[in-house]
Amino acid sequence: QVQPVESGGGSVQAGESLRLTCAVVGDSYEDYRWCLGWFRQVPGKEREGVAAIDSNGASATYADSVKGRFAISRANAKNTLYLEMNNLKPEDTAVYYCAAGYYPIGSQCSALLPEVYFRYWGQGTQVTVPS
Fold first, then answer.
1. In this structure, is the dihedral angle defined by the CA atoms of residues 77, 79, 83 and 84, taken in order, positive or negative?
2. pLDDT single digits (tens) 82-104
């Protein structure tokens, strides 16, 4: 069983930075289709993909709303995923989730990959940027 565990959320002022960490606990079989991602959700709205990174950390994708401000990375040896968030804005306020799964053959690991392919989800961590 695989269980992502997020940490690092909090409240910061607009323009400041925050780093989220996700420890992927448990036994996982990683092949070339393994994909790790960060999602976020605001109450009353659908959850959206923020960033995703493939199994070897070579390919990262981002939602347009965070491009140039957020950076996803992973430390394979530690089975850990990070999301560095810079120049935070009030509209970044949300619960952030870490997720892992396998993308289908013919597709790719992407922040736009449907949630159904992310089998394992963390409990979420709150990020608040007051306006």
1. negative
2. 999 999 999 999 999 999 999 99
Q: Quote the CA–CA distance of 1 and 111 in Å, as a whole number.
A: 23
Closest CA to 34 of 12, 18, 57: 57
Taking CA atoms, 79 is separated from 21, 82, 83, 88, 94, in Å, by 11, 10, 14, 26, 24
Cβ pair 97, 114 in contact under 8 A:
no
Report yes or no: 53 and 73 within 8 Å, Cβ to Cβ. Answer: yes
Amino acid present at 99: A
pLDDT given at position 124: 97
pLDDT, position 57: 79
